[in-house]
Amino acid sequence: MVAMTISLSAAARLVPVENGVMMYDYGGSIDTVYNPKAVAQHGILNYDSYQLTGDPQARQNFISAANWLLAQSVDMGNYSLWEYDFRWKSYGGVESPYASTLAQAEGIYVLVRAHNITSDECDIAGAEKAFGAFMVDHESGGVASDEGRDNYRQGHIIQLGRIYEITSEAILKE
User: Which of 21, 30, 101, 166 could form an SS bridge with 143, CB 3.0 to 4.6 Å?
Assistant: First the structure.
């Protein structure tokens, strides 16, 4: 199991929503929004908590995060993305909609884990479709890139680690 924390900028904070999914309050002009990476990361924290303690609320929050990811996935034909619907000031300003390799990696992980708990085929189908974004170049609408920017590399490395972890578990079960 991979330990994870959610890093927040000094002005940002997580805001819980009734269903257990987290929003992200950036303050200023962005205000409070759903951030796909934050939703997925909080889902993973709840998954880990549920696995360690059996807490039914952690399980419900985790499933809520998975359901949010399924509902918010944008169908791009042969792949899907979790798009951000707010302008990002970093990297010279990124206009919405845009996607993140990290959000894709963490979202896929959440959906595979949700499938392991619920056996809902929608979860695994959503994970497979989201993985397709790693097969499409960023300039063509996916998240694959050879630009060498750290955020792309980090997302790909996390995704490979997650795939290895999930695949290793599947092989051990056989």
Answer: 101
